[in-house]
Amino acid sequence: MTAGLLERYRRLLADGKISPDPAQALAVEKLQILTNRLALYVAPTKTDFFSFFTRKRGEVPKGLYVYGAVGRGKTMLMDLFYQEAQVEKKRRAHFHEFMADVHAALTVARRAAKDDPIVSVAKSIAAEARLLCLDELFVTDIADATIVSRLFATLFDAGTVVVFTSNAHPMQLYKNGRNRDQFVPFIHLIENTMEVLQLESAQDYRLQHLTHGALYFTPADSAAKVAMDELWKKLTFGEPCAPEAIPVLGRELHVPRACLGAARFTFAELFQQPTAASDYLALVRHYHTIFVDGIPVLTPADRNAARRFITFIDTLYDARTGFVASADAQPDDLYKAGDGSELFERTASRLIEMRSPDYFTKAAANRETAEESE
């Protein structure tokens, strides 16, 4: 067995990179126990894979559902766990990214006239991943809500171990959502097959790194446009920009301005159109930095645009994609009331962090990696 996760956490404490936190220490202990169990766990092989329905639940290590308020270190702990988990077949993804891939696979399975596309897709995922680490679980889309119960029940029965992070207790997921009765079995599945752990930290770790930078300009007036244009010019070395079209699930997403790995939209161009998580995933795969001009103060009537913007920021944040924007208000004041406004607390937090030098340094590292692969 290995104590690698605990050792790395203690080293971070000793180096002063994080502060002592009893809630985090407890979560690390739980994750270390799971790491040890995974090292001893033998998942179904290809030859006995289809016997998974007869497997005893006790043979499979119990997964973890870690939830807590914004900025408490959930994603950091998941990353440490994922890096230390001695599992040959594993995957770590943002929940949005994972579900976008699931829907794409379901489309293929339905065209192939599979008897049960959800079970077929789940089996394929289980064959490729003994361990799934899915960050930022929350569900707002009925298309996700209606399939997650059967999808994850099949994954669990097939022997895949899952670790979730979320801002909400399982009972709060998809609250007041349409056809929630179809989602409730997923909540019961989490409670019955996973250990639910609240990260009750009193510290907000964002505050150790936040600083104002010239990456978020307010108000979105002519001066902001001049500043955005100047930053765009520096980033693209003055090269001319041009429209591009990038493929998304058999169609194309129009990018009005693009150059040297950077893309630029107005808020209306990207969020007052029927865009979705799959579009944002395609953007972060193609561009290292995205500019958005003219983010307005959103009202209840803008709920669809607000929902898209929330998903967009989550996608950029998880990919460490650079983000530059002009807006009519500071992040905390962009969406105060309306459907989904409670989720905007996390979005505002991420907007603040994304304009810090630390975040942009990591985004620059992504850019260098992308350039080396070209």
UniProtKB/TrEMBL annotation:
In the UniProt record, the signal sequence range is none
Q: Which SUPFAM superfamilies match?
A: P-loop containing nucleoside triphosphate hydrolases
* Keyword terms of this UniProt record: ATP-binding, Nucleotide-binding
Q: Quick check: keyword ATP-binding in the entry?
A: yes
One GO term in the molecular function aspect is: ATP binding
InterPro entries referenced in this protein's UniProt entry, alphabetically: ATPase_AFG1-like (IPR005654), P-loop_NTPase (IPR027417)
Entries under NCBIfam families matching the protein:
ZapE
Protein name stated in the entry: AFG1-family ATPase
Q: Which organism is it from?
A: Rhodomicrobium vannielii (strain ATCC 17100 / DSM 162 / LMG 4299 / NCIMB 10020 / ATH 3.1.1)
